Amino acid sequence: MTILVTGATGTLGRHVVRCLRRAGHPVRALTRTPAGVTGLPDGVEVVGGDLTRPLTLAAAFDRVSAVHLLGAVGHDHTPLGAAGPQIVAMAVEAGVQRLTVLSPGEEGDLEQAVRDSGLEWTFVWPIDFMSNALGWAEAIRKTAQVREPYGGRSTASVDEADAAAVVATLLAEGGHAGRSLTLTGPEALTPADKVAAIATATGREIRFTELTDDQARLQWRAEGWPAEGIEFMLHMWATVPDSVASVTSTVEELIGRPPRTFAQWAAAHADAFRP
């Protein structure tokens, strides 16, 4: 039976597809724009569908045994809303047996529908992906510095490939049903710590400069950010909960090895930060 991966061209989904194919599983990759999709392994069946329009998903669920489902869509991570319960109902009707959901498992329409579905389900929530540091790549290449506010915030970021290995294991082998799993790397780091690791990986001197709120506003405004986006980001970083710095053992428990460090991730992606 086939395993369906939604968001298959995204940060996590692309790695989930690769993990499953390496293990020999038939994989169906769902994306809103299937034409021209590149970078997926040979043998992957690419299908079109939009999670916000459940009627477009009927063919995607045909003869599927397990599904990895996004809990939110788009660059702004909009929750599925009313579409979520419809998708879960379609999965049940199609005979899906196992479900992983990219969600912290907090109460919402989708989460309640999953709990009531009778499926073997697991919520999976990466605290933060190490690949988010690629947002610094252009600035580091051009100026050898990163300028951000709230430099003291610590985050236990996880390598996206490790998170994908967890999801692929759950989809293929089951276990941990009825649980909400938080995925982290092995350590909590500040932005300055991450910049230092990138500097070591690239062999370059790279500086981190902490900005005040007003300095950040001026910088982001000059970069073309909308006012509401600026204030949203400042508020988000000012209110980061302490829990994002808490390290869990989930990755090692599920994949049988310690999660990769940020230094290892930076070494593997060093070229992205070089001029």
Core attributes:
single chain, 275 residues, alpha/beta, Rossmann fold, UDP-galactose 4-epimerase, domain 1, 2 domains, seven-stranded parallel sheet, two-stranded antiparallel sheet, 10 helices, 11 strands, 36% helix, 19% strand
Secondary-structure element sequence? Answer: EHEEEEEHEHEHEHEHEHHHH
Secondary structure class reads: alpha/beta
Biggest sheet descriptor: 7 strands, parallel
Strand content: 15-25%
- Discrete helix count: 10
Which bin fits the share of residues in helices?
Answer: 25-40%
Distance between the termini: 46 Å
Here the CATH topology of the largest domain equals Rossmann fold
How many separate domains? 2
The CATH superfamily of the largest domain is identified as NAD(P)-binding Rossmann-like Domain
**Mean pLDDT over the full residue set:** 94
In angstroms, what is the radius of gyration? 20 Å
Would you kindly provide a written description of the structure presented here, covering whatever features stand out?
Helix 1 (13-22) crosses helix 5 and helix 6 (191-202) crosses helix 10 (262-268). The protein starts with a strand and ends in a 7-residue tail after the last helix. Strands 3-2-1-4-7-8-10 form a 7-stranded parallel β-sheet, covered by helices on one side. The chain has 275 residues and is of the alpha/beta class. The chain folds into 2 domains: 2-126, Rossmann fold (3-Layer(aba) Sandwich), CATH 3.40.50.720; 130-156 and 186-245 and 260-273, Alpha-Beta Complex (UDP-galactose 4-epimerase, domain 1), CATH 3.90.25. The chain has 10 helices and 11 strands. Helix content is 36%, strand content 19%. Residues 2-99 form the NmrA-like domain.
